[in-house]
Inverse folding.
């Protein structure tokens, strides 16, 4: 029996993962990666403290808008009081330690 002229699924996937420029682009990409990797390490070492500092400033500012429900509840509770915050968000969920202390009493 002669082999089927249609490509197998593996051959079709291999063809899709490589393009016409792969013979030129792949070695060029590997060379650029190897050449620029040390620069990336230096840039990362310099920018990491800056991004950490920026995150510590923006998180408290944005948490009332983008944070979890608990973060939003804590924020609004500090501004409008616990009763008003409970009206907005419902009764506050008890922490596991609080539930255990309630059972002992």
């Amino acid at each position: 029996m002669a082999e089927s002229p249609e490509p197998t699924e593996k051959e079709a996937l291999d063809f899709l993962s490589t393009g016409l420029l792969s013979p030129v682009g792949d070695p060029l990409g590997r060379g650029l990666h190897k050449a620029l990797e040390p620069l990336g390490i230096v840039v990362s070492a310099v920018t990491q403290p800056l991004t950490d500092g920026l995150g510590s400033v923006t998180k408290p500012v944005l948490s009332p808008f983008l944070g979890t429900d608990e973060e939003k509840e804590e924020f609004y509770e500090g501004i409008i009081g616990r009763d008003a915050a409970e009206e907005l968000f419902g009764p506050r969920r008890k922490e596991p330690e609080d539930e255990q202390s309630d059972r002992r009493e």
User: Anything to note?
Assistant: The mean pLDDT is 75. DSSP finds five helices and no strands in the chain. The two ends are 84 Å apart (CA to CA).
